[in-house]
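A common beginner's mistake is to predict each chain separately and then try to dock the pieces by hand. The better habit, illustrated here, is to supply every component at once so that their relative placement is modeled jointly.
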Amino acid sequence: MNASRTARDRARAELTREITEEARRQVASEGAQRLSLRAVARELGMVSSALYRYFPSRDDLLTQLIIDAYDGLGEAVEHGDDGIPAADPRGRWTAKCAAARTWAIAHRHEYALIYGTPVPGYQAPEATVGHASRVPVALLGVVKDALDAGLLAEPPARRHALDPELAAQGELAASLVAIDLPPAAAVRAVIAWSQLSGMIGFELFGTFAGSFDPADAFFSEAVARMADLVGLPDGG
Amino acid sequence: MNASRTARDRARAELTREITEEARRQVASEGAQRLSLRAVARELGMVSSALYRYFPSRDDLLTQLIIDAYDGLGEAVEHGDDGIPAADPRGRWTAKCAAARTWAIAHRHEYALIYGTPVPGYQAPEATVGHASRVPVALLGVVKDALDAGLLAEPPARRHALDPELAAQGELAASLVAIDLPPAAAVRAVIAWSQLSGMIGFELFGTFAGSFDPADAFFSEAVARMADLVGLPDGG
DNA sequence: CGTTGTCGAGAGCACTGCTCTCGCTTGCCT
DNA sequence: AGGCAAGCGAGAGCAGTGCTCTCGACAACG
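With all components supplied together, the output reads:
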């Protein structure tokens, strides 16, 4: 028996899909700000009020798009290193970062939806956190694999150890995503992740305009330096 | 003779100021998305159409707020290291980064205005770039001072030199802000700047919720690691 | 002193998210 | 098989938005 049995259920699922697709199209081409329920309804040949049978509000429709965007980026990053040997963690890291950038450039408005300014008054429902964590999980996974394979460089000895509160948070963060990693390594990976996000944001939102404009070279350099920071071995 | 002579001119300047102030108040409390010309006019006891005598469109009012935000953050960062001896470039760097974060937290919506998702269809007028560059200029200035004082560590010898295109862009970027810095140093500083921006964004927009939630310790660690990357000497 | 340009008010246009009511259809239960 | 409740789309309507245009009043300049 099919998941959706009755004709009504099937129609509902179909229409829900069509609505999100048209909405995604609008967001992709015009940005989330310009997403209009009425325009979506118009495009689908229905009246705007009918749309509320499927999404109780504009924010709920946006939430669906946000989840989809998290999944799209997450999947791109998860598979960004396909075909790269496990023995080359730096290569995997680099490929995943490049995949994130490529996806972000190809879906700039959807990327802005998840890593840009949150819609005011809107706070991410619980439902999104699992999808949101796919990218950091994928990045931390590379570090974890490198550690397990004995390929993770020890951070250079520092005068001071990690701040105790930070160590606790690092451990908590790693445990939240079910990746067993020493806090120092987790913290460094998160530093790199935030750098990645900042850099992509700069490129996408025009901060680099006029300087590192085709940002390819800058991106490569930054990813390499972050790989250094994380402790991934410089292969070759 | 005063800059604004006639009563009309003075009244105009005064009202322009009042409008931007009320608009800033709205943005600060509700976010740029919720800035409403009609609400501003209402609050000022005038009718909405009258507002168009002062700002030709909502975007122009937003542009003014964006410039003000750039200046506010810029000034905070420029003076964030006041009182810290020039002989301590790492201390100055750390203080400036902390000042940026403090300002961002205190003015989250204004920060989002400049480093968050740009308003769709809106592109920063030429007039903004000077204001926008104050933060990177301030950060690069610390690096430049360290270099001049012979306090900037040489980047560890790398197998490959900087990509030629990247070196050219780095040189161009440094020259754009009139700071004479070797490309490699400039690039590293910009990497650190983008990390700073990404990290502040994560904290502000809730990406860290549930892990590095009071982000103070994480922030300190990240700033320190970026200071390492830039080559600022670990004092003490 | 008169002309010109600026100003605020008001009406109005096209659009938005959202609500409510009204019939029609579908599907489940008896 | 029949009936009732739930789901559905259409339409009208509300309160709000950015923005335009016109009109009468006032200030500034020649």
